[in-house]
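User: Round two. Same drill as before: sequence, then structure, for each protein.

Assistant: Same drill it is. First protein:
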Amino acid sequence: MIRKAGIFSLALVLGLSLAVLPARAQFYTMGADPGGLHWRSIETPTYRVIYPQGLDSLAHVYAVTMEQVAGSVGASAGFRPNAAYRRKMPVVLHAYTANANGQVTWTPHRVEMLTVPDAFAPEATPWPLQLALHESRHVAQMQYGAAKPFRWLNVLGGELAPGALAVLYCGPAFFEGDAVVAETALTAAGRGRAADFLEYYRVSFAAGDFRDYWRWRYGSARWYTPDYYHAGYLAVGGIRAHFDVPDLTARYYRRIADHHGFTLLNWDKTVREATGRAFGDAFAEVTAALQQTWAEDEAARAPFMPSAPVSAVPRRFAEYTGLTGVGEDLYAVRRGLTQPDQWVRISPDGQERRFELLGSYASDPSYSDATGRFYWSELVRDPRWPLRSYSVIRSSDGRQSKLLTHKTRYYTPQASDTEALLAVTEYPVEGGSRVAVLDLEDGRELLGRDAPDGMQVVETAWLDGKLYATALTGAGYGIYQIPLEAGDTAFRTLLAPGPFKIGGFVDPLDGQLLFECDLTGVNELYALAPDSGEAPRRLTNTRFGASDFMIQRDTLWYSVLQPEGRLIHKTALADLPSVPADFSAPAKYPFAEELSAGEPLPLDLNAPVEVSAPQPYSKLAHLFHLHSWLPLYFAYDSVDNLSLETLREDAGLGATAFFQNELGTTAGWLGYHAAVSDGVWRHSAHANFAFTGLYPVIEASLDFNDREALEYYSAAGPWPVLESKSRGIPALTGTVRTYIPWNFSSGGWLRGIVPSAKFIFSNDVYHQYLQKEELMPMHRTTLSLRGYVMQHTPDACAYPHFGIGAEVGYSFRWARDVISPSLYAYLYGYLPGVWETHGLRWSALLSRRLVGGAYSEPFANTAPRGFESAITRQLAAYRTQFKATLDYKLPLIHVDRALLGPVAYLRNFELTLHGDYSAFSSDREWGNLYSVGADLVAVLGNLLWIPYETRIGVSWNYNGGASFDAFAARNLPVQRHKVELVFSVEM
């Protein structure tokens, strides 16, 4: 009975793993805002918006926008946002981070919005509206989990129920694809009306690459695949538009209710009922219709200009963007499946050398003739607070990289064509945008211009000492001249805004501004003469579009997407077409008009909204928020180590309650566990608590009566043996850990330092019988310091190419006269493998027992893999212990096939060759053990309805060493061959 309860717990946890959209682990938090912030809140009929004090205007914009879109967003979803809940939906605004994002989280349910706008090629929709539409659709989607027929599950489990149902019936691709449909259908922009959103499908279909839905959804370790937002949009939006089923999403949810909450393969059956076709056939028909539409468009736009490839076709997908020419060399940002993001220099003979690693959320570089340096913006997070970050300006001359600005929110720098000046866009914390001009020598701001209300400046360009910018308004993208004269603050319109995307500026040519735009449905290069009064002209005509244009002497260089990557091409300037462009007639995109026509309730962004007066938000009063519970026991903090061997301890009969506050700084759980132990029932209580709102993180746990308290004593024998007996009272064990997760990542390198202190107390004692009887407490303290420096891991690689980390620690019992304290040092690192996707991981661990008590205990695992935990305890008796490991991991056998439809998707196999060596010594004895073996696992894109990468396989070890026979003679659990099953889920 306990085993069945444990297995049910495991299944339930896997089912509850989708707690965030996009998919995240259960009880996910984006991190903590600075601990010193004070908070306020305002309310609308649907939402309660929580925001940092002093940002009332910003909060009002988001509150009004969220309320205005709620009815329209819910009309075709079947549920109005938050309709199934009595409490108003919390919306938490994070304004101090420098990157743009948003998410809807369940357990507890809330919307989290990073209010800084997207700085790099945002959609042609203002950021508050874009975010409100997308995240509100997620809120609407999740309502079915709290409505009929599932309300009883909410009584049974609280907010866990909608999270579990989200995995069972929907999944990330459905959620995100449907949200992109809402963006597209309810505005004149949205991702479905942008050329770059489906461009890889366009290229692939033309090359004959018609993958089925599952291959587009779960991807490949070998072939590039856009993320599941794209596949989800084709599945939901494509079927809805192509088969004229405007209520497809509502039908999906209604069908679940009609079948009383029990209907397997509900999406497939909904599609069959709506279209008369199986889902796979319907999806194939959608892609065929797309290919026909694109082929007709290409025929209408032909003939295309001549284009010569420059880049060699890479073995794995790679992209070259941000092209810049300096002298004879070409510079580009290279991103790919097998290399970290980096900036490369390409010499005239085609040789490619790394110039600089790039950090996260980085802009393309801009070169200054005045200083001979490149400049770019890069996200740098606060060392302690994940939700406080900056966008700083870095520069490099190829020999030295340095920071030009510190703790700024500057983006997309552009060097002046006449002076040592740098133009940047800035997004202040309180909202809005501005243009700033910096001195290249010291980064001082020489001039600043605030953009008009409702305008987001995106990118700037210099032309003959004048400054211009692309900017985004409610009407879309436009081009404006930025006033530089004293007293002049008016932005002059050069190109009226419209529902198209304008990408990066290109270095000017013959007194004309050059810019990218997807006006024709693909991205092309356009020219605009600011003072001529003439209409813009289109300078290129390509089949699939192009980007990252750069002129060097008499040649236009640019990047072209093809199945193998976004590779560099060139065309002579003399071969460019130059035709007038009509910006009043943007391209029509497949499915978009049909989606808009099917919306039952258009947006009304002028609708009045009732907003309450701001109120203080007490962090203390909202510290604990009980959101979920289970009528069984589950030790949530053990989920990473949950296995069939630990089910008896970590899951079973009882009850569990979970709490987490709205700001994501407090989380924990309370549990009651009933289990049979030694033939009698034992009732235990457990608590776990974590708080990240102070500078050091504090974690605590408490366990009561999961066993009886122990009294340890010395037992006679040839070896010192520590025996124990029951004290006859319940055990009480607690842990308090505090640490500081400092993060100093920048410049393409992950860096961190983590000092930690851990104290474990219990009512276990040691009975000292020598000179006088004394009960000595068995409390334990561990102090450690960890640090690391490593590169990001490319998508198709097993490990980072380079990296190193270290940890040192000191651990001791309070009864140090009985149990010796220990020091340990751990070193690990990563190196490239023989092949580009392979990787090598190595480690070395040294543990030293200090002079003290007669007994020892393991503070680190020094036994080789393949040996039981009893061997680790045995090795702890030796004063010095050393362990070295090598792991060589290589992906192989790329299958990329769905097995039984949605049941499992087999991506590839993965082989890890590994070897461990342990040496140990004391005053009387030394020895060693080793193991060599391999893990062979199948890498699955999903398993059943678990929408996470899953590994299932087998691990084999051959064990030996000089001490192997001696340990076997002592009847210790050693065996030559050890075979174990491998199962892991990456959440």
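Second protein:
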Amino acid sequence: MRVPLGWLGEYVELPDGVSGEQVAADLVRVGLEEEALHGGDVRGPIVVGRVLDYIDEPQTNGKTIRWCHVDVGPYNPDGQSARGVVCGAHNFGAGDLVVVSLPGAVLPGGFEISARRTYGHVSDGMIDSAKELGIGEDSEGILRLADVGIDAPVGADAIELLGLAEETVEVNVTPDRGYALSIRGVAREYALSTGARFTDPAEIEVPAPDADGYPVRLEDDDPVRGALGCDRYVARVVRGVRADAPSPLWMQRRLEQAGMRPISLAVDVTNYVMLAVGQPLHAFDLARLQGPIVVRRALAGERLVTLDDVPRTLDRQDLLITDSPPIDSADGSDGTRVLALAGVMGGASSEVSPATTDILLEAAHFDPVTVARTARRHKLSTEASRRFERGVDDDVAAAAAELAVRLLVEYGGGRPGPVTDVDLRTPRPPIRMSADLPDRLVGRRYGRPRVVELLEAIGCAVRTDPDADSSDRAVLVVDPPSWRPDLRLGVDLVEEVARLDGYEEIPSVLPAAPAGRGLTHQQGSRRSIARALAEHGLVEVLTYPFVGAEVGDVYGLASDDPRRRALRLANPLSEEQPYLRTWILPTLVEAARRNLGRGRTDLALFEVGLVTRPEEGHGLDAVAPCPALAQRPTPDELEALDSALPRQPRRVAMLLAGHREQPGWYGPGRAADWTDAVDLAVLVGSTVGLQLAVIQDEHAPWHPGRCARLEFAGVVVGHAGELHPKVVERLGLPPRTCAAELELDLLLDASGGIRAAAPVSTFPLAKEDVALVVDASVPATAVEAALREGAGDLLESVRLFDVYTGPQVGAGRKSLAFALRLRAPDRTLTAAEANAVREAAVRAAAALVGAVQRGA
């Protein structure tokens, strides 16, 4: 919500010379978040000038400029009666009053004016358009002051005359505080924050409805919610209006400051009143109405062309404004005409046009839920729907209509007509709250007098239950004001007490951590994994878990790959990404692509997160029950809810692109390759105490020749390697991009709980190396496992340090060289003991994988 300070100052007393920054700080104090400050960056001299004469001069580039002499009074150069100015516009003539920016002036956006030579003349200033002054959209023509009803002496300060230096404060309004989507609401909040005197613009004398008012019938009743979609409808007739006349300059200026575009008098007046008091209005062309106004729900097949020229098929739950009663027909076309989607947007059939002279003004109160559903159903969010769905003051409709009528009469020459006010509202039930509830919930001692004082400050009527005692345990009966429909429960009132008393006054008390507790094994392990990856140069990211329907094709997944089976969201944030991810890599890649698009060429990213894996009976075809809200669900209902949910395992994914080691004076650097991805996958396992087996595999989307399968105890826990070149090309990633993804839950379950630390031996290490020849199809990890089994407890570590293939070992064979490190916990190993361990390991490798010692 944008709030011009001049407009705000009409409703609440502002200190002299107050800045937008200070006003924003005062509003923040009562919970309105500051978004931005606008305006206030214009500096003079910007003055009123009179065009004395001009000469049209055609140019070689096809343009025709005007060399003008402009009288700016006391700002004329010494001894001269005018300044020479070059202007490209042609909508003015001799004698016109215009706005002139003189050298040294600064226009909105930091545009500085100086005397400069152009088109063969020295232009000693600039004649301004409305857009250049920041008060309109017209950039082609000069602002003629006569067109906006201003007559001022030559040389007068145009900054003050047009309000160019006025600041506008923009605040963010939370959904529960719709009343602040108006200058009236923000002014009330400023008064609460500072104690300034507030003047309600809606407190005006309103004419009573009469029998000659335009007929209105409210025939809506929502059978689902049992609530009226419209419980009040005020209709005002204004005749003889110049609807297409331009609105006064001050009104146009305020609308633009508030972020709205001036259109015509009728439209501008309704927008102005909406911004002023928060009540959306709609103007119908009275001559185009064919019968009484009827507010009802839509019929099957009804259609409406809205003001944005979009044909819309209506839903039975849409609330409509029509000008004749519905009929019972298949398509609802004969005899029925829809005028508007109630609270959202009007229709083209009854809109105000340049030929309109008689207007019917609508000021109604619509159900927030009904308006919100209609706006979302038709993807049509408007200024009106934003206010109705957050709750509009149901007492202000008549006053808002009267304000609009007065403006139309004053500036459009209209005559007020009869008044209609159909009011079906029911009294709101009071809120009963224990007087000490704020003390108990907030943890601060307010006391009943202070609670009552703060609630009355926001407009509540507070009384004490006569049957209660006089202590702070007394029950307060609170009637919220009409402009606060969000106040429904005692906790809502507690929030108001805390807000107005000051959040900064609430003491910060840290709870004492109970003894004997800490992180679970899973929590600690996840933190350790994230820390280990970060220590190896990776950056953690957190992405949205949503993907598009094409993800399986982009990554080259087989048609029966379980990763293609994804759940679609009922109400996705974006129709381009309506599915929940089944693995992390696609969303991690999107984060990488965004960084690459911003110039990052070397990336090392990882993410730990949940994925959704629907299965038969669990999320794929199961429908979760809807337990009653009156009591806690039964164990059977909870079990049914849980069984309907899909499996959501936790996974970790890593991605490398560009350089793994940066080039510099010390060397050329090194690009990331598939071995780095495998190393990171192994690092994840070793961090939780697991030795993962690395086995060559083919698994999309990895390169078939550079892909490894990670296993533990024969169970596949993930894959790592280089991504397939076609996948890399489709995604626009750097060549040789590498990735890994592991099933983290499987690793954490296998790693168990707390393990006893292994004793550290102080005795010397014995080193033995062995080279074994095996078939080329035998994985190195299988050979390593056989060596471990044969070596026994004295083996401290085994490491593959060389692989050889060639004529010396024969076709279809390979030589694997391992470094064995042996150590005993209680003695120094003898050469004979070390040799015996080596021989036992070789025998086990021969028996288990057919290994032959090289050179034997």
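The chain has 21 helices and 41 strands.

User: Perfect.
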